[in-house]
Write a structure and sequence with these properties.
- It is built from 20 helices and 17 strands.
- The protein has helices at 8-21, 26-44, 59-73, 91-98, 132-143, 182-185, 189-193, 205-210, 253-264, 279-283, 297-305, 322-332, 349-353, 359-367, 380-386, 388-391, 398-409, 444-457, 462-480, 488-502; strands at 50-55, 78-82, 104-105, 115-120, 148-151, 173-177, 195-199, 215-217, 241-245, 269-274, 290-293, 310-314, 342-347, 373-376, 411-415, 421-423, 429-431.
- The longest helix is centred in the first third of the chain and has 19 residues, at 26-44.
- The chain starts with 7 loop residues before the first helix and ends with a helix.
- It folds into two domains: 8-213, Rossmann fold (3-Layer(aba) Sandwich); 220-502, Ribokinase (UDP-N-acetylmuramoyl-L-alanine:D-glutamate ligase), CATH 3.40.1190.
- By secondary structure, the protein is an alpha/beta fold.
- The strands form two sheets. The chain has a ten-stranded mixed beta sheet, sandwiched between helices. It has a seven-stranded parallel beta sheet with strand order 3-2-1-4-5-6-7, with helices on one face.
- Bound molecules: ligand NPW and potassium ion.
- Residues 219-500 form the YjeF C-terminal domain.
Length: 504
């Protein structure tokens, strides 16, 4: 799979193993990196008046010296600007020695219109905020709106977290090597990278396979094989039954949106579980979706005893409080290993907030033997209610936070945002990169919760169901585009589901 995402530390390990395995040594890999950058620069800017290649003291600078040499050999006008000298004897020093151009001090960097900047200052080794001459170079490129081609990462962007240290180049395109890094996908890094081009520099799939990578970009390759397909002889309950808890009479719409989305995602039957006082309003708006009255845990217990595969959604419009907690814990199981036929619980919105002062009860129940799978869908505010210490820890990336929260809560975490991260208790995590701004609309989260439940009810494992739902939801948002409201999303899933069904 090429959708593995390597941390800078994992990439350094891949470099070491690739060098040990051959055929390329360190300078061999670096020459290929320089070649990839130079080829892309010439292809994208054949009429550039000049390429300004900015080289730092580490191996990122080494890639820059290699690119500068090749651009110069191709006949392009090249200016080389350096900050700090490469460590003697290292690969970057070899690459600098192979480059016939004399570097000028970055302190004097100037660039006119029509020129292109190649940023090889800092990549995976970024260790402090950009300042001084490097920060001035960023200012010049930004003010003059010069196209920037970033080598590995735009200098200033952390490969681990996507955060900006000090300031950073806004790249038009970023050439990275072997696999993407979290900083290419997490915000704001994703935006600062521009287009990300993966270059093969000779680090083979076998080497990456040895690293047992657990981080992925969320693409269909990650979950398509397990995407539910109805068997020819199926019937509606075998396709899974989703139950969505409704709020009171003035807050029922969110549950119905979730229910509709679960049905579109392929659940064979969907029921809205409504408080008695909201039965009429729910009944007035439901057709193929069923309705059942549930006011207390005793009634809920009878539904849970029904052993058909089922998934539950609790949260959209439900209200915050003890009732939400009691219902959620009942759905998860009694902690005694009771197999209640429930595939999973999607805890969203008010369902999450209800546990703000009682997180341990949720986490312990979710971790008990035989508990139903728990999927939580917090946005940033909800995340901080349940995981305040993680949320406030600036040393952690969004990826780290989601992963730690999943392990702590025994839940698959869908940590929402424009760079949604999905993380499983077993350490796997996926970063989503296809979100559309149109998705930021009321009710959009209710739809997502319903899609997750629809896939869970059909037996899709929780992490894969969460990844598939996030991808489908985002893709539906982008395909619909401007004017989108949450009611449009379930229908917008249909062509995507069709093409998934046709692609295998
Ligand atoms: N064969 C290979 O190994 C291959 C490697 N490849 C390439 O190597 C790159 C990683 O190389 P790298 O590990 O040398 O780190 P790099 O990003 O050059 O920076 C380290 C230097 O910069 C300095 N420094 C950092 N931040 C700073 C700041 N804000 N302001 C000032 N200084 C700062 C830092 O200083 P220090 O932290 O030591 O104080 C150190 O001197 C990777 O991105 C890819 O492009 C590819 O060619 C594939 C083959
Ligand atoms: K760079």
């Amino acid at each position: 799979m090429s959708n593995e995402v390597l941390s800078p530390a994992e990439m350094a390990e891949a470099d070491r193993r690739a060098i040990a395995a051959g055929p390329f040594d360190g300078i061999g890999l670096m020459r290929r990196a320089g070649q990839a950058v130079a080829s892309l620069a010439l292809a994208r800017h054949p009429a550039a008046e000049r390429f300004h290649v900015l080289c730092g003291p580490g191996n990122n600078g080494g890639d820059g010296y290699g690119a500068a040499r090749l651009l110069h050999e191709s006949g392009a006008a090249v200016s080389l600007w350096a900050v700090g000298a490469p460590r003697p004897g290292g690969d970057a020093a070899l690459a600098a020695a192979e480059c016939p151009l004399t570097p000028q001090a970055l302190a004097g960097f100037e660039a006119g219109p029509g020129t292109v900047v190649i940023d090889a200052l800092y990549g995976a080794g970024l260790s402090k905020p950009l300042a001084g001459d490097a920060a001035r170079a960023v200012d010049i490129a930004t003010e003059r709106k010069l196209p920037v081609i970033a080598v590995d990462l735009p200098s200033g962007v952390s490969g681990d977290s996507g955060r900006v240290l000090g300031c950073a180049f806004q790249a038009e395109v970023t050439v990275t090597f072997a696999r993407k890094k979290p900083g290419h996908l997490l915000l704001p890094g994703r935006q600062l990278c521009g287009e990300v081009v993966l270059a093969d520099i000779g680090i083979g799939d076998a080497v990456i396979g040895e690293l047992r990578i657990k981080t992925f970009e969320n693409t269909p390759a990650l979950w398509q094989a397990g995407f539910p397909r109805p068997a020819a002889d199926t019937h509606k309950y075998r396709r899974g039954h989703v139950n969505v808890f409704s709020g009171g009479p003035s807050a029922t719409g969110a549950a119905r949106l979730s229910a509709l989305a679960a049905a579109r995602a392929g659940a064979g039957a969907v029921t809205v579980l409504s408080p008695g006082n909201a039965m009429q309003v729910n009944a007035a708006h439901l057709t193929s979706i069923m309705l059942r009255k549930v006011d207390d845990t005793a009634t809920l217990a009878a539904i849970l005893d029904d052993s058909r595969p089922a998934a539950f959604v609790l949260g959209p419009g439900f209200g915050v409080g003890e009732k939400a907690r009691d219902f959620a814990l009942a759905v998860l199981g009694d902690g005694q290993g009771r197999q209640n036929g429930v595939e999973g619980l999607v805890l969203d919105a008010d369902g999450i907030t209800s546990f703000e002062d009682h997180p341990a009860s949720l986490f312990i129940t979710a971790g008990a033997k035989g508990a139903a799978k728990l999927v939580m869908t917090p946005h940033e505010g909800e995340f901080s209610r349940l995981f305040s210490s993680l949320a406030g820890d600036d040393s952690l990336s969004k990826l780290d936070k989601a992963r730690k929260a999943a392990a702590r809560s025994h839940a698959v975490m869908i940590y929402k945002g424009a760079d949604t991260v999905i993380a499983a208790p077993d350490g796997r995590a996926a970063i989503n990169a296809n979100a559309a701004p149109w998705l930021a609309t009321a009710g959009s989260g209710d739809v997502l919760a319903g899609v997750v439940a629809g896939l869970l009810a059909q037996g899709m494992p929780a992490f894969e169901a969460a990844c598939a739902a996030v991808w489908l939801h985002a893709e539906a948002g982008s395909s619909f585009g401007p004017g989108l409201i949450a009611e449009d999303l379930p229908q917008a899933l249909v062509p995507l589901l069709r093409s998934l069904a046709n692609s295998t």
